[in-house]
Amino acid sequence: MSVLVVVECDKGEVKKSSLEVASYGAQVAQMLGTTATAVAVGEASEANLATLGEQGITKVLFDAEPRLKDFVNGAYTKLIAAATEQEQAKVIVLANSNIGAAVGSRLAIRLKASLATNVVELPKANGSSFTVKRGAFSGKAFADVVLSGERKIIAVKKNSIEALHNAGQTAQVQAFSASLSDADFADAPKQVVMQDQAGGILLPEADKVVSGGRGMKGPENWHLIEDLAKALGAATACSKPVSDVDWRPHHEHVGQTGITVSPNLYIACGISGAIQHLAGVNSSKVIVVINKDPEAPFFKAADYGIVGDVFDVLPKLTQAVKELG
Amino acid sequence: MKFLVCISNVPDTTTKITFTPDNKEFNKAGVQFVINPWDEYALTRAIELKEAQGSGTVTVLNVGEADTEPNIRKALAIGADDAIRVNAAPKDAYFVAQQIAHYAKEGGYDVILMGKESIDYNGFQVHGMVGELLGIPTVAPAMKLDMNGNTATLEREIEGGKEIVEVNAPFVASCQQPMCEPRIPNMRGIMTARTKPLKVVDAVGEGAATEVAEYQLPPKKQGVKLIPAEQAGELIKLLRNEAKVI
Predict the structure, then answer these.
(1) Number of structural domains, chain B?
(2) Chain A residues with CB inside 8 Å of B132's CB?
(3) CATH topology identical between A2-185 and A198-324
(4) Which residue of B has its CA nearest to A317?
(5) Which CATH number is A2-185 given?
(6) Is the pLDDT reported for residue A138 higher than 90?
(7) What distance in Å separates residue B59's CA from the closest CA in chain A?
(8) Which of A40, A208, A287, A324 has the fewest CB atoms in 10 Å of its CB?
(9) Residue-range definition of the domain harbouring residue B179
(10) Which amino acid positions bind FAD, per UniProt (chain A) (predicted)?
(11) What span, in angstroms and rounded, lies between the C-alpha atoms of A225 and B162?
(12) Roughly how many angstroms between the first and final C-alpha of chain B, as a whole number?
């Protein structure tokens, strides 16, 4: 019996969300008196996989099949199922990402497991009962969910768990083969198109986000958002009305029907704070709102606020960040 | 081509969320329910593809008790041809997936579409479970879907980009924007929806794999600390020294 952790890699690096997932898995393993094994998916490098020891992982399984570099639902599911059987894993931990949810839901059926997605805390295990806390109602509530199956799959929400860093610990990387056949690659991509991200920071992975709404008055003013984001090392985002009128691409739309983010810092510029937008951001640790309307509902959900014109305030903030050094 | 579109009945996006006194269930009192906004992409796209093909059917399926029928009728008014309601409260994703898989198999559907997730439970699970139960591919979440004969070309969103994927029917896809512009019912649609077939069937399969022990609301915010606009730079100092986030 062990805990199996699925780590997503990109260009040889383990994704930040997967460092959190690994740390989560290692802590669950400790609770259950066992060890945590990782299985790598995506474009992985053996040297970087070994550093998962810092997150408490003992062993990493790595299948060098080149077609696993891109996301393939069928093949990833089979690979993780095979690793689960080999390790006799009772708990499987993955990221609550597009990949994690797509694979986790298939695995739940294949492994006859109870699945919880969007999990925000370590589980409470008490005798045979096993409970996790997950986000529900688009960030407006939490649910404690009992996973009664003998096997449990947990998809951990990004930025909910602090990644461990035990310097110097290394994990043992082992070759692993799930004997994948062509049939497992039925949904392999014909083409992969990556977005051109401002400053190279992916919104779903970002721990700081600067976001703009209709108050920015037009796409030509977005350099004010981008300048502050660049100075802070933040990703950029927008509200639904902004992506609806194509000022910004849809993948930057944060909200109930866009993506949900939970960064350490969310700065909302010229966004009134409709309840649907709040649903996408209200698990952010610190929310800053800049709006010239003191009655904007977003101020009620904010930690810090500036009542003022974004065109005047944003350059001042960018300047202040640069002066911090 | 036979399309099956799975819709879920969810609280309107502006709903203030509260729970029953034992915190075990969502408090439905006074709440307006709508078709899950993500499912609207699946429904409209299925109708568009049927229209483009010039033949075929779009069936909507909902797992819910009788109070979901107004939204099923709304889906029929938007343009679905007929509907199936599995007469049971949707206990969890596994329970719902079993119903969809069973009735999808029974009806011999080619394409099974649904929204990325429901905005109430936010499971993002049913699509993969249905695909696995039926042994067919799942593409999730899909931003674009085109059909050419039996072959579908989809754009699957991945973190930081997209994959162009081709699969043959039958398959499952979970849908999200910018797949299409969701349609709203017109008067003619509303009139014809009244007489379109809505079949009520019994739930099948095993029970749920998970159970909600308790719902909680997030802790209240302390209240906003306002910084005068002319001293905007002070905010950055507070974020570093007080909030410690930069």
Answers:
(1) 1
(2) 77, 105-106, 108-110
(3) yes
(4) B233
(5) 3.40.50.620
(6) no
(7) 24
(8) A324
(9) 2-217
(10) 214, 270-277, 291
(11) 25
(12) 54
Predicted confidence (pLDDT) per residue in A81-115, tens digit: 999 999 999 999 999 999 999 999 999 999 999 99
pLDDT tens for residues B79-121?
A: 999 999 999 999 999 999 999 999 999 999 999 999 999 999 9
Chain B residues within 8 A of A275 when measuring between CB atoms:
13-14
Residue B60 is part of a domain; what is its CATH number?
Answer: 3.40.50.620
Domain membership of residue B246 (yes or no) is: no
Handedness of CA A228, A230, A234, A235 (dihedral sign): positive
Annotated binding site of A: 214, 270-277, 291
Report the residue from A99, A109, A283 with minimal CB separation from B133: A109
Question: Which residue among A96, A113, A146 sits closest to B213, beta carbon to beta carbon?
Answer: A146
| Angle, alpha carbons A79-A82-A84 (nearest 5°) | 110
Q: Regarding the domain delimited by A198-324, which CATH topology (the fold level of the hierarchy) does it fall under?
A: Rossmann fold (3.40.50)
Q: How far apart are the first and last CA of chain A?
A: 49
Q: Is B47 a member of any domain? A: yes
Q: Which among B122, B216, B224 has the least Cβ separation from residue A118? A: B122
Residue B165 falls inside a structural domain: yes
Contact B128 A105 (CB under 8 A): yes
CA proximity to A288, closest of A321, A256, A259, A257? A321
Among B103, B177, B192, B107, residue whose Cα is nearest residue B144: B177
Q: Output the pLDDT for position A198.
A: 54
pLDDT digit string (tens) for B118-132?
A: 999 999 999 999 999
Q: What residues of chain B lie within 8 A of the CB of A253, using their CB?
A: 177
Which DSSP state fits A285?
S
How is chain A split into domains, by residue range? 2-185, 198-324
In a domain, B11, yes or no: yes
Contacts of A133 (CB under 8 A, 6+ apart): A119, A120, A121, A142, A143, A144, A145
Q: Which residues on chain A are in Cβ contact (under 8 Å) with B122?
A: 117-118, 135-138
Q: Which long-range contacts (CB under 8 A, 24 or more apart) does B200-205 make?
A: B200/B84, B200/B85, B200/B87, B201/B84, B201/B85, B201/B86, B201/B87, B201/B103, B202/B86, B202/B87, B202/B88, B203/B63, B203/B86, B203/B87, B203/B88, B203/B95, B203/B99, B204/B98, B204/B99, B204/B102, B205/B95, B205/B98, B205/B99, B205/B102
Give A33-44 pLDDT, tens digit per residue: 999 999 999 999
B169-200 pLDDT tens trace: 999 999 998 899 999 999 999 999 999 999 99
Touching check for B173 and chain A: CB below 8 Å?
A: no
Taking CA atoms, B7 is separated from A125, A136, B136, B170, B210, in Å, by 35, 18, 20, 19, 21
Cβ separation of B224 and A305 shorter than 8 Å? yes
Share of chain A above pLDDT 90, in %: 86
pLDDT band at residue A293 under the 50/70/90 scheme = very high
Give the residue ranges of the annotated binding site of A for FAD.
214, 270-277, 291
